[in-house]
Amino acid sequence: MSIERLKTGFNWPRATCLLFALAPALLAYGQEGQYRSKIRIDPAGDVSQGEGLSIEELERQISSITDSYAKSSAGRHLARHFVEQGEYTRAIEYYQQALTARGLSDIANREMLRELAQVYLLNKNYADAAATLERVLRIKLVPEVTDYLLLAQAYYRMGNLVQVVAALDPVREQGLTLDISQQRQALALYYQAGAYAQCEWLLRQLLSAEPDNPENWHQLAAVYLQQGKKKQALDQLMLAWKKSVPFRERDIVLLVDLQAVNGNPYGAAVILDGALTGKTVQANGLNYRKLFQYWLQARENERASAALVQAARLSGDIELYLYLAQLQMEQEAWQPMYQTMLAACESQLPARHVGRANLLLGISQLKTGDAPSARRSFINATLIGGVGAQAGKWLEFMQAEPPTDAETRGIVGVCHGAGDKQVAADEFSASGGASPVKPASRTASQAAPVVATKTVPPLKFFYQEYRGPLAQLATEANSLARAMGVSLVKAGGSVDGALQIIAVGEGEEGILQLGFPYRGSPRGGGKYKTLVTTAFKCAYLIIEGDGGSLPRRWADFLVDLEKAGYTPGDQRRVLLQAGTGGALRLELQVGIE
């Protein structure tokens, strides 16, 4: 799309002037449930003298039973009944009577002891459960894995982690076989006790039995890390990566960090870059900052700069903007450096950053041919601690006129703090209080006009189409926005940004999409719709104040866009935001190719 079409098609100066009339509008298997083994109760068998009696009659007669076998059988029968009823205290009493009678074989007694131990566990009598299971293991019969697992569980509940390990270790020493479920129980108990070498052994068994289970791969890497085996952890994850084992975002980040820790920042950056591109990790400031650090360590400066641009844009971290400007200065990328500083100073700065921001802004202005503005920025930098000496040297270098009294009274410019006077970038050259500075006339040797550009990330947009006249939109936008906000909340979403307009089509009859960015998963309905836009590369202009100079500034912006060599795209957007002092703040965006 040509500049002329942008000027004469949709009437953006008129549209944006009208908008000024608008009011600012959980390696874990350690959860309790999986350790609780259900008591195995067989249907009641022969209880001799108690057979056929009701529970109440059996309870009355058990003390008079003299035959040891019958007494043990009756006691076990009653115990199991009360377990089923959830009356664990009475169940324990009858299990103890049955065992004291000694009327059953070692095999039967062992089974009763196991049942009793489990009742103790259910009743949270962990010490009695452990003592009972120790009795089980002293019986001269071949032990079972379940006995050791229950004993370890009892010690774990008591907080005795040393005994947890001591209870489990005989399983391996005696060559007992664990099924998959038992291996996972033992793994969780060993892990909680900090026995990572035993965890490693179990995970290797699980990996052999279930090679397609991604948890086995990632848990083994985690166990290596717990032992300080960073190289083995990296090798494990790299093998999983090559085998296309599923990776969650946290697993990818761990792999990336391990690459860097093991001396391969380039490999770390390649994996993270691919994950960001493939959207398998979140495209946020933290991840792009990490990507920047790894590209920088790998001495891939251009890639590092590109990652830092994204990190700064997504996080809004002023420190990152200033670091990026410093990096661009080292690369002598003066125009990108200037655009970085405009973005950094778009909003009010914390006081600790004002001096350095003005210093860097001044350098970029000087190097792009705007010496008068550079002078004012350097003067600003001398008025605050930290960088005053550096700014003074730059003033000496450019042989600038000494500051006037008015210029030393306070900071006036693009990069400003709470108590400073803000001046927009396109008016900065004309600022300066009592001693105004005239804009430098452009010559053939000077840089092309500076146009701020950025890439707006994909946008989740809740909107309605508007086809009426622009003048009518100016009077209806407030009520439309309020109704839309209410509908968005009722549909299951929430507002996630400023009210904005996206233009579709050309001319006065073009369609406008008026709406809000949103969070959540609202459903469109009736006149309201939702869409997810693609990333939007644009040139942008921020305007705050009264709308009187808007047509001129809009026209100048389009001219500068053309002179800077950009080709406008078809999409235009306007963002309506609350500026300083309650004034309306507009951001005009024109797509560029």
How would you characterize this protein structure?
- Helix 5 packs antiparallel against helix 6, helix 6 packs antiparallel against helix 7 and helix 10 packs antiparallel against helix 11.
- The strands form two sheets. Strands 3, 4, 5, 6, 7, 8, 9, 10 and 11 form a nine-stranded antiparallel beta sheet that branches.
- The chain folds into four domains: 160 residues, Multidrug-efflux Transporter 1 Regulator Bmrr, Chain A (Alpha-Beta Barrel), CATH 3.20.80; 191 residues, Tetratricopeptide repeat domain (Serine Threonine Protein Phosphatase 5, Tetratricopeptide repeat, Alpha Horseshoe); 69 residues, Serine Threonine Protein Phosphatase 5, Tetratricopeptide repeat (Alpha Horseshoe); 109 residues.
- The protein is elongated and about 115 Å long.
- The protein has 593 residues and is an alpha+beta fold.
- Strand 10 and strand 11 form a beta hairpin.
- About 9% of the residues have low confidence.
- It starts with a helix and ends with a strand.
